[in-house]
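Progress note, sequence design subtask.
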């Protein structure tokens, strides 16, 4: 008789051999739970992440910028849908996941709890927030759970367009009037530290990392990805002629990467616990959208039931 221990060993062997785990494969309960947690939180982040940018669609400075922003926000809705589908393959319904978001039980990325005060914030989000998201998501294209890895491939292609449009938006502002330059620098100042927080707590404080690395759900640690991000942005900002708001940012020739200052972890945990500048506003907006969309869900269900009845009658 195969024991649970043997199942677990075979499972780990499979992971070590770089095979993908598929929905119907045997998996430890904790592997299922961790993936469900991470994928659904990721889906929630995409959907809540539409709100700060959606706020600027009516105020985009030209038709071209408005069309680009609408396309980007729509892409994020699509990312949320692929990810909810991937999470559903682990056995939880989308309704349950959404209930958990709306009740405050499920987390979503801390970054979307900051306000978007000026048009330059659209550039800073594209460049910094999507830039941080891509670094994390390129790694996730090789994650061990098949449906998550496959969803990530397409998402990454779209995210790299998002990052470029963000950089280009800031590039235009950085070459503009004194007021535009100031707006560009101000947005970078406000989004820099929250972007660094997107990678999660320090490795030493990260409760899930050890096991997630062993199961190859995560392939790089929070600190490793954060360092990659700092190294990338510290070079790209030179092209904008702007600065990052960190007096400790300095190239370290010995480690061939940038040193940088300490993140305000108190602020990070406050935002994660629901006390950031916009947490309440974001969840209220999602609850309102969910309530106002009830009739669409009811109509879709009624239509599906009607179609099923017709199928059953014609099969009889
Ligand atoms: N915010 O043990 P770890 C995007 C929580 S998508 C809130 O290190 P883990 C696209 C964490 O859940 C952005 N909570 O956790 C876009 C855990 O709590 P739990 C989202 C955070 O999972 C762009 C606890 O802290 N991307 O931006 C955060 O191993 C523009 C301990 O942490 C993803 O979700 C945080 N920043 O590593 C959309 C990528 N960090 O659940 C619109 C997938 C940590 O045990 C516009 N996720 N926590 O109660 C991941 O790669 C991982 O989940 C990490 C965290 C790296 C985020």
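Output:
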């Amino acid at each position: 008789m195969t024991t649970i221990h043997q199942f677990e060993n075979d499972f780990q062997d499979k992971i070590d051999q770089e095979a993908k785990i598929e929905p119907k494969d045997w998996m430890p309960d904790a592997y299922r739970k961790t993936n469900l947690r991470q994928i659904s939180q990721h889906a929630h982040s995409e959907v809540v992440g539409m709100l700060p940018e959606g706020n600027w669609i009516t105020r985009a400075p030209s038709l071209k910028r408005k069309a680009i922003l609408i396309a980007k926000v729509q892409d994020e809705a699509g990312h949320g849908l692929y990810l909810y589908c991937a999470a559903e393959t682990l056995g939880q319904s989308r309704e349950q996941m959404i209930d958990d978001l709306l009740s405050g039980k499920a987390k979503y990325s801390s970054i979307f709890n900051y306000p978007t005060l000026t048009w330059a914030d659209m550039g800073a989000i594209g460049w910094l927030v999507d830039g941080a998201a891509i670094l994390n998501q390129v790694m996730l294209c090789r994650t061990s759970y098949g449906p998550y890895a496959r969803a990530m491939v397409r998402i990454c292609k779209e995210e790299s367009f998002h990052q470029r449009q963000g950089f280009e938006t800031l590039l235009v502002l950085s070459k503009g009037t004194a007021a535009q330059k100031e707006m560009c620098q101000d947005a970078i100042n406000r989004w820099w530290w929250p972007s660094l927080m997107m990678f999660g707590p320090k490795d030493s404080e990260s409760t899930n990392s050890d096991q997630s690395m062993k199961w190859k759900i995560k392939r790089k640690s929070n600190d490793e990805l954060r360092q990659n991000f700092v190294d990338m942005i510290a070079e790209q900002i030179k092209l904008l002629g702007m600065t990052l708001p960190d007096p400790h940012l300095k190239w370290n020739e010995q480690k061939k990467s940038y040193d940088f200052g300490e993140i305000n972890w108190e602020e990070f945990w406050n935002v994660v616990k629901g006390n950031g500048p916009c947490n309440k506003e974001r969840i209220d907006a999602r609850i309102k959208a969910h309530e106002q969309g009830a009739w669409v869900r009811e109509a879709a269900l009624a239509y599906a039931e009607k179609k099923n009845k017709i199928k059953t009658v014609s099969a009889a």
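The first strand starts at residue 250 and ends at 252. Work on this subtask will continue into the next period as scheduled.
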